[in-house]
Amino acid sequence: MSAIASQHEGTDRAAQSGRRVPRANRGAWTIALLLVTLALTVAARGDSVLPGDVAVTRQIQRPDSTIVGYLADLGNAAGSATVSIPLSIVLVAALWLRRCPVEAAVVASVTVLRPANTLLKSLFDSPRPTNDLVHVEAPVSGWGFPSGHAMGITLLCGSIIWVALRLLPPGWLRRGIVAGAATFILLTGFGRIYVGAHWPSDVLGGYLWGTIAIVAVATTVERLVAPLPAGETSAGGTADGDPAANSGSS
User: In the chain, where are the structural domains located?
Assistant: First the structure.
């Protein structure tokens, strides 16, 4: 029992050791994120191509080398459902076994939200790139905004970053995990644009909608399982079972 208690104390210290954003500031950033996402979504809706999409895509597709192609393939594979969903399941199981139910619940919840990307695409009817504008390596059917690969990798790697910041103390391990997860997020976006599967605005939309999903789920789960004040039990009494305290003054 003492070992388990020490583990949870260490986890608590790790979570508290990072710099926490004040709740008011966090709310302001969340509102700003939502407004930016909605603005981009409204602009991307419909048949037109957003200004800059063609030019940026052509610049990204300009390099032609084996290494660049390999990086694009790696990013595309990482963002696919066949890779990211099994990895999410493994992460949920590992967190549950490590007795981190809050983190496991958040990762599981954002993974379940991945199919919502199909609904978003059907609502916005934004077309994918075509060969008359940019190079399309392999035509993909369906709508483009927001990118499913970009949203999926954001849900997976974004939740990994959130877990790392909560559970790990500041140091090289936490920095390495955060940097690695962020790299795969960027690689997936690069890969989708490089092969002509998505416009840059589609990728950015996937990043934004994925981030909103993580923020919404994490905030909800944290509120639902927020720890009770020290010394208070779920029944409203005190942890030491003092009958006077539990029965109230009479």
Answer: 32-43+50-225
